Amino acid sequence: MKLKFIAITLLSLLFLTSCDAVDDLLSFTISNETSIKIKSTSPLNLPTEIITPDVTTNSSAEFENNKTKASLVKDVKIRSLKISIADPSDKTFTFLKSIHLFISTTDSDEIELAYQDNINSSGNTIDLVCTDKKLDQYIKADKYKIRTQVTLKETLTKDVTIKADMKFRVTADPF
Prior knowledge:
The chain is an alpha+beta fold. The chain has three helices and ten strands; from the N terminus they run αβββαβββββαββ. The strands form two sheets. Strands 2, 3, 5, 6, 8 and 9 form a six-stranded antiparallel sheet that branches. The chain has a four-stranded antiparallel sheet with strand order 1-10-4-7. The radius of gyration is 21 Å and the shape is elongated.
């Protein structure tokens, strides 16, 4: 009896860990980036909307490179979103109070992608807090829009360009 219990426990453990291993084998990362330009005329302590040009996805090529296709993708979530100051190169994020990024397509509603409130950084890069929303329909699309909402705590003397580096974790079915 004790031997059967041990065998069942070992088989259950093997099954549970193999599911995670299979998911890891069927998962990969897609990276995209966009630029966000914050105008020097943006008001202080009031949220300002910034619409970026459409981000063209390379997902079809990424799916093909990872031996899958869009119809087999079952789960896409953002894993990291890092912003960094591209111009001026000597600028830090001391001017920024909060930032929220939203994603949308022409066929899908807008949802929040990542954010950071009460920013207290004297560096030129920030890791944003990523939401746990399903992003399948956005990443499968040919392009998507990123809308940014920023609140400034200091006056800008010149425009600031921020680069947003997004990494999405994609999991696909094997068949």
